Amino acid sequence: MLAASLGNLCGYWIGAKAGPVIFTREKSRFFRREYVDKTLDFFRKHGARAVVLGRLVPIVRTVITVTAGVGRMNPRYCLMYSVIGAIAWGAGVTVLG
Q1: CA–CA separation, 65 vs 73, rounded Å?
Q2: Could you identify which of 4, 11, 16, 24 might form a hypothetical disulfide with 69, taking C-beta atoms 3.0 to 4.6 angstroms apart as the criterion?
Q3: 8 Å CB contact between 1 and 90
């Protein structure tokens, strides 16, 4: 759970540092400024729930914290909810096993 939380924290900082640079290109197909604006709105509405539940979904688990960094979610909250999600994920996998 510690490694998962630290990995998520690294993902957050990658999104926070690289996000603004990537999304400034004018004619990019995938990385548009409007997507960042939608991400900001999404994390204002569902940030905590998205990070916790994102830990439980295989592909989303990889990108949710990077997206939280791009969306400028508060780093303390992101780490806190990531730890909660990691605990839920670790306990869930253990119980299912």
Answers
A1: 9
A2: 16
A3: yes
